[in-house]
Specification:
534 residues, mainly beta, 17-stranded mixed β-sheet, signal, Serine/threonine protein kinase
């Protein structure tokens, strides 16, 4: 996509200035003369010169409302006059791949589209589309800097396997890291996408009246509606690193995640994503029906997949690994839940149009530790079920090899998380629990219907509990060992489910040892290698 109007830059602002070791980042925009049309100004790169031989790099930075980022020949730098928490993007923008490893650097928030609480005088229309092209890198200098997509707007970030798109901390680049500590979780705020989908945070009456306006966590904007097929844009071949924040003004739970999908509909999908070292959740769903596939989560401090408020989507091929990271010379543990699965914020006759979360999730590997997260001192667990979560889960591999210190568990039920089991709407199929200790999964620990936790998971022989010393991974340490004699469960090929988003498989877990040439195998391999170095 090209900008609506092409401009000629009248002055290129100063490049990044670093003042000593503790210097500040100065980011100055270029002022754009709207009266002159330069048809070459949106080209993919290169440099231009005048008749006097004065070669000056052509400015290929994005333009918003007559303000263009400053281009120093390598990086595009955008200050608060381009975009901030007080400036919303109202026109289509494109961020191109910059030459020589250049980066689009933002000092503030990038707010796509106009936020709207429909109980006020505003209305939601068709907003702009921000396109991020393959190979582009967007970096942020502040914990307050978020990417927020309003209802009606779109963020399309479609990379390629060879040219993924990156959203990250400016501190990942030494030329922007003025302190010199390198990147770290919570360096920037993450991505929030607000959709028109269905969430049980609104009543039926509010949806029918067009007044469903749920305030998002972290930094308030509004989402919700009655269209679970809504399209808020999509992502593919994308890395989201060092994002999120801890509890904000609202206290515990009022957080910024790496990727928040607020009532985003099935018109959007998120595929081939690597979320690394986020401070809160990796992906959090608040209702809607967005679909996700081929996602790797490494060293997310809270939950990797946090499901809430009636999510109805499909997920396949998820690799989740908890580990440790170096913070000021000390190795600290990362990770609470592989999944925190909640069904509903509200229930009853007033919310009949918005059922509890009922996703279909297939081919998942969760590797936990016995450590306590540096975020909140909570243990690393594979799955936590709460608030009447309903779901059908296929080909899961849950792994915990160590409980020497904290005796942590693989699966935990809290509150009314057992209701889905009792009603027969929460089940595993063709799945393996390879955990050294199963904690409350004993024959004597019963649900309200008299079924034991062991009987529920085993599901009449559909699944198996094989202990933490079983051989489940191939020599690469992450792909399911297709020759393992310890895995005796046969994978569900998923063909009978009639879900067009699911791909047929012949293996349990997220990755097969027989599939080393695929992009998915290599995506996981590269993501785990990068996390290991961090």
């Amino acid at each position: 996509m090209k900008l609506h109007t092409l401009f000629k830059v009248t002055a290129i602002a100063s490049a990044l200035a670093l003042v000593g070791c503790g210097g500040d980042i100065e980011i100055n925009p270029s002022v754009v003369d709207n009266s002159v049309n330069n048809s070459n100004n949106s080209s993919g790169g290169g440099s231009g010169g005048d008749d006097n031989g004065d070669n000056t790099a052509e400015n290929i930075c994005a333009v918003n409302n007559g303000v263009q980022g400053a281009f120093d020949g390598r990086d595009c730098e955008y200050n608060l006059e381009f975009a901030s928490r007080n400036i919303e993007i109202t026109e289509d923008l494109t961020f191109v791949e910059l030459p020589d490893g250049g980066v689009h650097v933002f000092d503030g928030a990038l707010l796509v589209g106009e936020d709207c609480d429909t109980t006020t005088s505003c209305t939601i229309g068709e907003g702009p589309t921000v396109t991020v092209e393959p190979g582009a890198t967007l970096a942020f200098t502040s914990g307050e800097a978020i990417v927020r997509v309003a209802r009606g707007a779109k963020l399309d970030a479609i990379g390629t396997f060879d040219k993924p798109i990156t959203f990250t901390s400016a501190n990942a680049f030494t030329r922007f890291d003025v302190v010199g500590n390198g990147p770290r979780f919570a360096d920037w705020g993450g991505i929030i996408v607000n959709g028109h989908g269905i969430t049980n945070q609104c009543t039926d009456a509010q949806r029918d009246a067009g007044t469903c306006n749920v305030a998002s966590e972290g930094i308030v904007s509004y989402y919700g509606g009655n269209d679970n097929a809504d399209d808020s844009g999509s992502m593919k071949y994308v890395k989201i690193w060092y994002a999120g924040s801890g509890p904000r003004a609202g206290g515990d739970g009022d957080d910024l995640n790496s990727l928040t999908l607020n009532a985003v509909g099935s018109g959007s999908s998120y595929e081939f994503v690597h979320i690394h070292q986020g401070y809160d959740d990796g992906i959090e769903f608040f209702g809607g029906a967005a679909n996700v596939k081929n996602v790797v989560f490494t060293d997310t401090q809270d939950d990797s997949m946090d499901i809430d408020s009636g999510w109805q989507g499909t997920a396949q091929f998820l690799y989740i690994k908890h580990g440790t990271v170096n913070v000021d010379g000390e190795q600290v543990f990362m990770g609470n839940g592989g999944f925190e699965a909640d069904g509903e914020k509200n229930a009853g006759a007033e919310y009949s149009q918005a059922p509890a979360s009922r996703p279909t999730i297939a081919n998942v590997t969760v590797v936990t530790t016995d450590g306590l997260s540096t975020r909140d001192n909570d243990p690393s667990i594979a799955m936590k079920f709460d608030d009447n979560f309903l779901g059908q889960m296929y080909n899961f591999l849950l792994v915990k090899e160590d409980v020497s210190t904290n005796d942590s568990r693989c699966i935990l039920f809290t509150g009314d998380g057992e209701k889905g089991v009792v009603d027969g709407d929460l089940n595993f199929y063709s799945s393996v629990m390879a955990c050294v200790a199963e904690n409350e999964f004993t024959s004597g620990n019963l649900f309200a219907n008299g079924l034991s936790r062991q009987e529920w998971f085993d599901n009449g022989g559909e699944n198996a509990r094989i202990g933490g010393n079983a051989t489940v991974f191939a020599a690469d340490g992450f792909a399911t060992d297709m020759s393992s004699s310890d895995i005796t469960v046969t994978a569900n090929d998923l063909s009978s489910l009639g879900n067009p988003y699911l791909e047929p498989v012949d293996f349990i877990g997220a990755v097969s040892s027989d599939d080393t040439s695929s992009e998915w195998y290599q995506w996981v391999e590269a993501a785990l290698a990068a996390a290991e170095q961090d």
